[in-house]
Amino acid sequence: MTRTLRLKTLAAMAALSATLPFSLHAAPFASRVVISGGTNVSFVLNEPADALAYRLNGVGPLTPLNGATKGTKSFSLNAPTDTFEIFANKVDTVGYTIPTGATIAVVANGLSQVTNESGFKLISDDTNPLTRFNSPRGVSVSNNPASANFGVSYVANSAAGNTTGVVRSVGDGLYALNADQSDAYGYGNTEKDPGNLFDAVSASANSAFRIMVSSAGSVYSSDFSDANGNVNVANQDLTVGSRLLTGVGGPSAVPAGQYHGSTTAVFVEGSAATGDLVLYTLDEDLTSANVGGVSTTDKNSLWRYNIGAGATPSNVIPTKVNAANVLLSGATSDLDKGADGKFYLAQNRSAGGEAGVVVLNPDGTVAYDSLTASRTLLGNPTANDILRNVLAMAVSADQKWMAIMLNNSDVAVVPLVAGIPDLAGRMVVNTGTDVNSGRDIAFDAAGNIHYVSSGQALYRVLSPGGATYAKTSWNGQSLSFSMSNVPEPSTLCLLGSAGIAAIGFVRRRA
Questions:
Q1: CA–CA separation, 355 vs 367, rounded Å?
Q2: Where is the signal peptide (predicted)?
Q3: How far is CA 507 from CA 170, 238, 301, 495, 502, in A?
Q4: DSSP states of 148-168 as a string?
C-alpha cells in the first residue's frame, strides 16, 4: 500500500467517525489470552474479523492471522520477554448502532411510542446447543483484560428442564461460555452451583437471578427468591462459592439482625483479596427501619455494603444510596453503574405511568428519570413513560450506550450524553417474534450486547456494526484492551480494498 493510499484510507475512516450519529465500538476482539510455555500465545476470537494480525515488541511489520473464522487462534513469541499486540478489524453495515430506516410499532410488551429500528446482527448461533437455556435469569461478561476469564460470559439458569427445537437438558445453576460461545470450562450441560447455595432451602425460579462479573473476575449472583434470598459469589471457573451476607431468605419482614432480603440485582467494586470490596444491591424487602432508620416503605432501594477485607458471610450494616424512594416496592428491578459514578436503576412497569429508568448522581440524588424525560420530549405532561416494560438494563463500558431488555424480548438501545439517556435517539432491535419474557442484558468490553430471554429460551450476542477496531496488548506484566474508530496508521494495510469499500457504504447509510 502506498503512502498516499494509507493517508486517504485514514482520512476516510476519520470522516466516517465524524459523520456517524453515535460512537461505535469494536465487535471482533481477542479475548482470554493465555501465554504458555514462555512463548506460546493463544486467544479466543469472538467473531470473524475482516483482518486479524499481531505485532511483537511494538515495532516492525504486522503478522496476519486467519480471522475468517471465530474461535481459538495462536502464534509464537521469539522470546519469553517479548511484548505483543493483537489487532482485529471489521466493517459491518448492520448492527444495533445503525438505523435500518424502518420503525417499530407500539406493542403491549414493548415501548409506548413508535421507535426507529436499528440493525439486528446476531454473532452468536441459535443452533448451538450451548446457547439454549430453558429458564435463564441472568447474564454477565468478564470485561477486565487483565483477568484470566476476559471475555467469558456467564448465564444463570434458575430451573432444571429441557429446551425445545434445539433440545438441551440443563440444570439449575451457572454456566460459562467463551466469547465465541464455546464451552469455557468443559462442563457441557452440567450446571455449577458452587457451595450448593441455589435452592438451598426450597426450589425457586428466582434462584439464581441476575449475575455480575467483577473487575477481579469473580461471579456474583443475586437471589430473588423468598427462601434463598442473598448474594452469592463464585470464582472464575465456578468451582468454589459462598454467601456474601449473613442470613438466608427474603421474607417481607426482615428478621432482626439480618441486613438483606431478596435481592434483584448486584454491582460489585474491588475485592476481599485487596481489602476494598464494596457491594451494591437492590433489595425487595430491606427498609431503613431494618438498619436503624425510620421508613418502613422504602423497599427496592439501592444499598451499599462496605465489606472491605471483612469475613463473609458479612453482617455489615448497609447504607441507603438513593436520597428518595425512586423505585416502586413491588417492581422487578435492575442496577448498573457508570464509569463516572452514576447509578442506573430500572424497573418493569407495563403501563408506563412510572419511570422505567432512573439515573442517580454518585451522591444518590436523582439526575434523570425517563417518565419526566418522556413527557418533556412528547410535550404531554400526562404521557406514559416511553421506556416501559424494562426487564433489565445495562450501560456500556465507555458510558455511551444503554441497552434495555424489553419484556417482549426485543432490545432497546439509547445513546447516553454525559451519562444521561437521550430518548430522542432511542432505537429498537427487532429480535424476532414477540415473546415474553426477556430477562437480562449486558455489554462486553467491545460493545457487543449479550442478552438472555426465557421466552426465546436463548442466550444471544448482538453486534454494534460499523467500522470497528480493537487491540489487545501484553506489556510484559499485564494485558490491556482498547478500541478505536480509526486504526493506527501502521495497521492500515490490514483493511484492504474490500474494507475501504465497505467503509464508504456505511458512511452513505449514515
A1: 13
A2: 1-26
A3: 44, 44, 44, 16, 9
A4: TTTT-EEEEE-S-EE-SSS--
Span 3-93+467-509: which CATH code?
2.60.40
- The crossing angle, in degrees rounded to 10, of helices 3-19 and 496-509 is 30
**Residue 447 backbone zone (phi > 0: left; psi -120 to 50: alpha; other: beta):** left
Query: Per DSSP, what are the bridge partners of residue 216?
Result: none
454 φ/ψ angles, rounded to the nearest 5 degrees: -75, -25
The owner of cell 448492527 is 95
Question: Which sign, positive or negative, has the C-alpha torsion 190, 194, 195, 201?
Answer: negative
Question: What three-state secondary structure class fits 469?
Answer: strand
Whole-angstrom Cα distance, residue 458 to residue 437?
Answer: 11
Q: In the Cβ-directed half-sphere of 252, how many Cα atoms lie within 13 Å?
A: 3
Look at residues 139, 120, 106, 97 and name the one whose alpha carbon lies nearest to residue 388: 106
Task: Specify the amino acid at residue 51.
Answer: A
| pLDDT tens, per residue, the chain with 510 residues | 333 433 333 343 333 333 333 333 448 999 999 999 999 999 999 999 999 999 999 988 899 999 999 999 999 999 999 999 999 999 999 999 999 999 999 999 999 999 999 999 999 999 999 999 999 999 999 999 999 999 999 999 999 999 999 999 999 999 999 999 999 999 999 999 999 999 988 889 899 999 999 999 999 999 999 999 999 999 999 999 999 999 999 887 899 999 999 999 999 999 999 999 999 999 999 999 999 999 999 999 999 999 999 999 999 999 999 999 999 988 899 999 999 999 999 999 988 899 999 999 999 999 999 999 999 999 999 999 999 999 999 999 999 999 999 999 999 999 999 999 999 999 999 999 999 999 999 999 999 999 999 999 999 999 999 988 999 999 999 999 998 776 676 665 665 544 444 444 444 444
Q: Distance between CA atoms of 191 and 35, rounded to whole angstroms? A: 28
pTM for the model: 0.92
**All 3 cell numbers of residue 333?**
428491578
Nearest Cα to 440, choosing from 413, 415, 403, 399? 403
Please report, for the chain, how many H helices and E strands are present, in that order.
Answer: 3, 35
C-alpha distance from residue 471 to each of 287, 445, 446, 450, 468 (Å): 46, 11, 10, 21, 11
User: Rounded to an integer, what distance in angstroms lies between the CA atom of residue 173 and that of residue 189?
Assistant: 11
